[in-house]
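Reviewers of the previous submission asked for a worked example of the structure-prediction workflow described in the proposal, so we include one complete record here. The input consisted solely of the amino acid sequence. No template or homolog information was supplied to the procedure at any stage.
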Amino acid sequence: MVSLFGIFVVAILSLFCTAHCTCLSHLDYFNCTLYCISTQKKHRCFQGSDDSCPTGESCFRGVIECADKLPTLTAVDAGLAEKTYTEEEIALLLDEEIAKERDEEAMSNPDNWWCGTSYSNMLETCSKRCTTDEDCKASSSSWEAGFCYKTTGGPENCATEGVPVKEPVPEGSRWCGSSWNDMLETCVGMCEADEDCGEGKTCWEAPGTCQW
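From that input alone, the workflow returned the following structure tokens.
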């Protein structure tokens, strides 16, 4: 039974976090209406933190299009009870672990290591394979030194030298932030890689958001 204090905490936090807080991928955020009416179960991020979201998703506030389409708020969302798992959820978690092990094995294969001045640049150029950062140092034709990035291979990653797998984004499309929300709220500075943003911040690819 939830105590009166617990009910009071829930009520106060409900005022602090809008009724439309939900976990979405960045792409889904910009297409929220279609995403929210789909049959896929959504996740509430009651405490307003990305930490409660599944991998690859962030907590967005004030997503009006999602009104009345989110799951019922539970004690688990509020941190008042431990989450339990169904057999289907356990099977999904096991599949994720298997996929993680498969990715780690692929990343140990030097055939999947490629040079780039940033991870995005690596995908946009697929310039050459490497084994260490030394293989990606600046040459007479390029003044900017690169790094050797390990990938998981497959169709979304480089496979042939000189054949990119990603279209370059417009200049000024990458910005620093401690989270996706923080980047949108602050637009503190442009970047090309996480290293440009300082400790605790990530370089987010966000065309059409922050202005420079």
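Residues 107-150 form one domain. We consider this example representative of the routine output the project will generate in years two and three.
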